[in-house]
Amino acid sequence: MRKVSFAIRGEYITLGQLLKVLDIVPTGGQAKMLIKSGQVKVNGDVEVRRGRKLRPGDTVQVDDLLIELVAEGEV
Q1: How far apart are CA 33 and CA 56, in angstroms?
Q2: Which of 50, 51, 71, 72 could form a disulfide with 16, with the two C-beta atoms 3.0–4.6 Å apart?
């Protein structure tokens, strides 16, 4: 499994925004489809809400990619 860290600017980022920023999906519509299909886990649990607020300390898993969210300046 590949691991990457992503620094959040501000208090949070939504799950859909994160998937677009990291080029996992090109559009919000595709992010919605990927999330609704049950292929995305947040902190080990399947997440189906693209508006889920992610904060430093959360992890997101998509296929073999694990994304660890950190506060800006911690990367």
Answers
A1: 25
A2: 50
Q: Give how many domains the chain has, as a whole number.
A: 1
Digit-coded pLDDT (tens) for 35-59? 999 999 999 999 999 999 999 999 9
- 23: domain CATH number is 3.10.290.10
Question: In the block, which residue shows the tokens 């607020």?
Answer: 53
Q: Are 7 and 72 in contact (CB under 8 A)?
A: yes
CB 15 within 8 A of CB 47: yes
In whole angstroms, give the CA distance from residue 10 to residue 12. 6
The model's pTM is: 0.93
